[in-house]
Amino acid sequence: MNKRVFKFLCFLLLLPTVLNAQIPWNHHINRQDITDLLIDGQYLWMATKNTGLVRWNTNTEEQQVFDRDNVFFSDSSIKLVLDSSGVVWAASGNTIAQFRNGSFGQQFHFSSRVNDLTVDYSGAVWVGISDGILKQSGTTFKRITAFDELRGTDEYVDNVVSGGADSCVYVRVKNRVFRFGIDGQYHKTIELPFDNPCSMVVSRGELFVTDIWNVAVYDGADWRSYSTEDGTLSNSVLGFSVSAQGDIWAYGLNVMVYENENWDVRLQYERGGTGIWAIAPVSGNIAWIGGTYFFGKLVWGELQQISTNSPANNMIEYIYADYDGSVWVRCSDGKNVISKYNGSEWSHPYTRPFTDMLRTQDSTYYFIGNTNVHVFGVVRNGVRVNDLRGNGFIPSGNINAIAEDHLEKIWFATSKGVIRNYSDTLFSSDNSGFASSHINTILATSDSSLWI
Questions:
Q1: Which helix (H) or strand (E) holds 389?
Q2: Pairwise CA distance, residues 328 & 322, whole Å
Q3: Which pLDDT belongs to residue 353?
Q4: Distance CA 402, CA 366 (A)
Q5: I need a labelling partner for 214 at 20 to 30 A (CA). Which of 231, 298, 321, 450 fits?
Q6: With contact defined as beta carbons under 8 Å apart, do 111 and 129 qualify?
Q7: Burial class for 228, CB neighbours closer than 10 Å (0-12, 13-18, 19+)
Q8: Cut 0.90: pTM above it
Q9: Backbone angles phi, psi at 437, to 5 degrees
Q10: Which of 31, 77, 79, 82 shows the shortest CA–CA distance to 56?
């Protein structure tokens, strides 16, 4: 047989093996879109928006991931508590589970969604499901029937928190809070001063509640009020967290601590509308904090940010390859964020909402919103300017789309027609025979045509 033919036949025989060989993929996954934080000794537990749980060793920085790929029961909407025995409980959907001996083994399933859970002064876990509350009793959970007589037919549990030293548990339904003893006996009803409260917590015998723009504190007899309107709150409050010593932290766009009946700002964190979504206080001056795509430790007002080395989130819409070897990705998960990877680290240079993005032939990036245009990497006087700045030309109307033609000219499709970047001529139904001046999209082809 001819040697060339023989080699070719051997190649064909080996081809399936070559094609089926495992390709080594490097996964860039954001596990820092944090929704809850819990301190467990040297470990910090991080509940993420859609990538499960992360158990992070704060000494060695080793991570252990619990998600559906690792036989965990959920990837999202996870709530965490630590009981008096040092056992971590995780809740999601209608299920809660205990972390023992390195895994979430025993699980408990309920008739409806678990909205909240807490640990009372005796160490028992309380679970608030949509239509009731239950208390841990040995290896089972027993329903608190006294609560069923208090709530209305179409009312559901919003929050369940423990009062700590006062040996009480507080259950919120809309703008009412029902106080129970740890024996399950009903004590009293507290009417809240807000119509639409969103979060509450109890510490040192006081009840704290927020409706985002206002915070009220109840000492058992009277309410003290704080508001962004009168300046007693520096910014909105999304939720609260309590340190082991009882320090009250509030988080949102700012991080604040309650001291001497005032809210002291520990951190102002506003980046493109992104705020703090979870906090785990160590004391009155130290706390772990997490946001949409960042994670760090706040120590005496100084943020020690820890790089996530990942895109802003895992909802990737587009990937762009730059001529310098870097990669840009457009992330969309409630907010539109652009992340850039330079081969070793991720950065997030554009964090404001936008509707479309264009990478031009010379690697200039255009970002458009409804009424704004920004550019990144534009060449000025032969020098590339690698920061984000306004375009200098904003077409009239709402901007719907952007395109680059074969002559490297930029075109905008708007609610009033089509216009070229820095041009005075608007093409519309009035002068170009369009069926409508409201143009939703635009496409430039290699034959010098524009399609709308």
A1: strand 383-390
A2: 7
A3: 67
A4: 8
A5: 298
A6: yes
A7: middle
A8: no
A9: -85, -10
A10: 31
On whether the CB atoms of residues 37 and 279 are closer than 8 A, the answer is yes
The pair of three-digit structure tokens given for residue 295, joined into one six-digit string? 């994670």
Both tokens of 40, joined, read 């467990």
- Kindly write down the DSSP assignment for every residue of 324-359, as one continuous string: TS-EEEEEESSSEEEEEE-SS-EEEEE-S--SEEEE
Report pLDDT digits (tens) over 400-443: 999 999 999 999 999 999 999 999 999 999 999 999 999 999 99
Beta strands in 144-236 (DSSP E): 159-162, 168-173, 176-181, 186-191, 199-203, 206-210, 214-218, 223-227
The tokens describing 435, both together, are 């069926």
Best CA proximity match to 126, nearest among 165, 176, 179: 179
Amino acid identity of residue 374, one-letter, is H
User: Contact 123/85 with Cβ under 8 angstroms?
Assistant: yes
CA distance 355 to 338: 12
- pLDDT tens readout for residues 273-301: 557 889 999 999 999 998 766 788 999 98
Q: How many CB atoms lie within 10 A of CB 355?
A: 15
Q: Which residue has the tokens 């506003």?
A: 270
Q: Where are the beta strands (DSSP E) in 86-184?
A: 88-92, 95-100, 103-109, 114-119, 125-129, 132-137, 140-143, 159-162, 168-173, 176-181
Q: Which of 369, 392, 150, 172 is nearest to 272 (CA)?
A: 369
Q: What is the 3 state secondary structure string of 227-285?
A: ECCCCCCCCCEEEEEECCCCCEEEEECEEEEEECCEEEEEEECCECCECEEEEEECCCC
Cα–Cα distance between 443 and 177 in angstroms, integer?
A: 57
Cα–Cα separations (whole angstroms), residue 414 to 33, 67, 274: 34, 43, 28
β-bridge partners, 439: none
Q: Is 289 helix (H, G, I), strand (E, B) or coil?
A: strand
DSSP character for 214?
E
d(CA 424, CA 242): 59
Q: Is the CB of residue 91 less than 8 Å from the CB of residue 130?
A: no
